[in-house]
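Reproducibility note. Readers wishing to regenerate the assembly model reported in the main text can use the exact inputs given here. Chain order matters: entities are listed in the order in which they were concatenated for prediction.
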Amino acid sequence: MCGDLRKEATGKEVILMGWVNNRRDHGGVIFIDLRDYTGLCQIVFGNQHDANSFERADTLRSENVIAIKGIVADRADNMINPKMVTGEIEIFVTELKILNTCKNLPLQISDEQQEVNEKTRLKYRTLDLRRPAMQENLMLRSKAAQVVRNFFYDSQFFEIDTPFLTRSTPEGARDFLVPSRVNPGKFFALPQSPQLFKQMLMISGYDRYFQIVKCFRDEDLRGNRQPEFTQIDIEMSFTDQAQVISVVEKMVQKLFKETINVDVQLPIIQMTYAEAMDDYGVDAPDLRYDLKLKDVSSIIKGCGFKVFSGATDKGGIVKTIMVPNGSSLSRKELDDFTDFVKIFKSKGMAWAKINEDGWQSPIAKFFTEEEIQAINEKTGAKPGDLILFGADTSKIVNDSLGNLRKEIAKKLGLVNDDVFKFVWVTDFPLFEYDETEKRYSSSHHPFTMPVIEDLEKWGETDPSKIKSIAYDLVLNGVELGGGSIRIHQKEIQEKIFKLLNLSDQEIKEKFGFFIESLEFGAPPHGGLAFGFDRIMMFLNKTSSIRDVIPFPKTQQASCLLTEAPSDVALDQLKELGLAIRKSNQ
RNA sequence: GGAGCUGUAGUUAAGAUUGGUUAUAACGCCGGCCUGUCAAGCCGGAGGCCGCGGGUUCGAGUCCCGUCAGCUCCGCCA
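Running the prediction on these inputs yields the following structure tokens for the assembly.
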């Protein structure tokens, strides 16, 4: 292949096929860099090598597809190109076959300097994917998938596939629906994950399962979220949290080693959800930098500043971020931070610059010397430092300061993308209270095993206090994957459904098949699912999920290449028993 | 559903504060010259619905309103 030839091949006759990356026409001699997925190789056309191909090489243009026969030649010392791995040799072309031509290009394949607009890239994805950078991304993805497969196969996991046409389930994300022609008026749903199927495989006795599988969720897109995405899905029987974690982190270690040669130290540290929220304000903390949040609620309780004391009086909290040497930040930068926290429903952000003689702060006058001392002590602030305050409900304070912490780290240059800080976050609450719908919903999913003592103690009175046996693997502030030990007893599963406000009839209708499966000797089991695309974002060092997915959707969930989704013929609808309603009422 | 950023030759950008002759550059493309380049070089050339629609104005790429698209984020994502 083009990128493989070295000095050792000198004198050999070779056949190369590929794309014209670049043509340099000197009149009497024409140089072409020929490209395939392995790289570039310079081929030389000249009268002395072959008059016929030299003449026709005049017509070659970028991205023409050609096949050549030629002799590998050693380059003289002053002609070696140290920038190319094949730079010590070139091919004297003796025969040229033009396999295809190419129209003028909407984006340049060979120019890696020029960042092309993403709209253009997605519209001409075929060409975008021909760019070496994208080829590297997708080839690494292929390699990663192989490493994962080999790891699990070697660890006695079975790769078993599960259906894409399955039934819609309540809870969770919106389903993508697929109408059934054979059963007019009825619909399949594409799986949000193979959750129930893998659990049923455990019940069927397959002991250990994995799958690299597409999942579908009809929710709004983000820089790291696509409507169809790929999970590394894992389930194990007769297991517990420690064992799942232990197996999975070995996989992660192997994956990072064999793809990007990064050593992941095992065991990966663990922290509870409560610790993560306390110290970082988020359930997926970035541990590459410190900037921990400190709760100063008890200090400011009853202080003269009504915004703070009012927040704690109403059951809220006041937390701080101490920015070392942060007092050099300008008023404008602090205003930007204030605007930033407003995204997260925070009403504002107070700040205090620490001087030798006390606080320089709009709110300093509201605090006694003792309170100031206590806050300085709690936050560890010294002269030259800066303290930022958030006061509101704990959700808003954690949300805004947790995200502000990341923002500050970015701004101060504390974020090093060559560092990989993994952490397991454990002991998640089983439920979250949904304020808008006034009910509880599962933090993980409804099949997560609760801590049984919690369930007995709080089940009737305060379900939000129930913890679950669930765990997330977080890397640099991003959730890579999450899992749990599952409920394997019918009674507990039914109890959880009830707490989720599902009626007996709904339970029977939606999950009857699963509940019944549990009754036929379900073993204890648990597992985890990774976002494969997100892992690939780290391995490829990209911040866009679209750079690791060959044919992604735009934020409006459309494909600019195929123009999907599209209208369909009336006949198709008719056959499915469907009609499109004009208005959206 | 909401907020912000962006949209100008094939591509990437400048021009937008302060409205004013023919909208500028680089790369790419086309033609010519050239036997050692490798981001080749030199000479010449073509290429524009300034996202779209409306408004203000004697005059709009530039100001105003609307709209569409791409991106980032909030909500949403068990």
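We highlight two features of this model. Chain A has a mean pLDDT of 95. Chain A has 17 helices and 22 strands.
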